[in-house]
Amino acid sequence: MTEPEVFFTGFPGFLGSALLERVLARGDGPVACLVQPQYLETARRRAQEITDGIDGVDKDAIRLYEGDITEPDLGLDDESLESVRELYHLAAVYDLAVDRDLAEAVNVRGTEHVLEFAEDCDVDRLHYVSTCYVSGRYDGVFTEDHLQEGQSFNNHYEETKYRAEVAVQKRMDAGLPATIYRPAIVVGDSRTGETDKYDGPYYLLRLLLAQPSRFSLAFSLPDSSDAELNVVPRDYVVDAIASLSDREETVGEVYQLCDPAPLPVPRFVETLATAAGHRTVTLPTTKQVARAVSSRLSSSLPLEPATLDYLDHPTRYACPKTRQALEGSGIAVPAFESYVDRLVGYVLENPDVGDEAMV
């Protein structure tokens, strides 16, 4: 039996599952996947769906290994994975309201454990999925060349992802062959609207949908008109990582997977409302008042107070390296207006999808 040379964390997560399918389809299997015990059954089902959908791929092309990035040696016990040459690290807590201890354990110490595993295996390549929001509340244009800028952070998610990327870049500086990918806010598939979690911008949409269509209220903060919501669909992120990760010249680089022409916050909310068939009235208020109201209503309405920080987020994102690297590939960010109807349609057809993060 061929030993796996590719290793994944973050399966069976939303991004991890789609990217794993692409890696297998291009012939890089078999792939070893680290899976937490509570997600083993889901992982088995998803693995079978993926292998059944790819011609010429064996059912054992996805090998599941029980473990956890928060544990030393990834909790693999005596499992031998010395054959691993390439590692994709996607596992993280994607939750704006995550508490400090959990974010620290998963995003920071978990990444450090993965880096140690990569070093022990002497891998030829590490692919690390970070986030544009390592920027924190950097006031200005944030590019692939920015990282340690003395910025403050909106929440523990941002801060711990920042610290994790700092750790990865330090290893890169010491010689680890790695590539970093920083997606902006990832929403559902632009072709189908599919997603597995209603968080981030979905709170805005679900708040609108919970109100009468003739009269729906939305918050507007003093600096909202100058802020942008940088949103990218899952298929763009997966296409970009699949393309960039398959090229030798991308080793040592950082790529921001963001929309180079995002919508300002008021226009974004208006676009969501139009797609949902709602007439929206914007209520100007302060963040303090909006946060107090959101906290009180969060038990009865689909609200997450942490989302408010992105309605006046001062950072603008640019991706010159990514645009240059993907030039001529046909891979580009679609305009939000071109697929928002599919996002809204999916939410309306699948009201039971939750907002819980995989932890």
Automatic annotation (TrEMBL):
PANTHER family: FATTY ACYL-COA REDUCTASE CG8306-RELATED, MALE STERILITY PROTEIN 2-RELATED. One of its GO terms (molecular function) is alcohol-forming very long-chain fatty acyl-CoA reductase activity. CDD domains: MupV_like_SDR_e. This is Thioester reductase domain-containing protein. Gene3D superfamilies: NAD(P)-binding Rossmann-like Domain (3.40.50.720). Residues 9-241 form the Thioester reductase (TE) domain. Coiled coil: none annotated. It comes from Natronobacterium texcoconense. GO terms for biological process: long-chain fatty-acyl-CoA metabolic process.
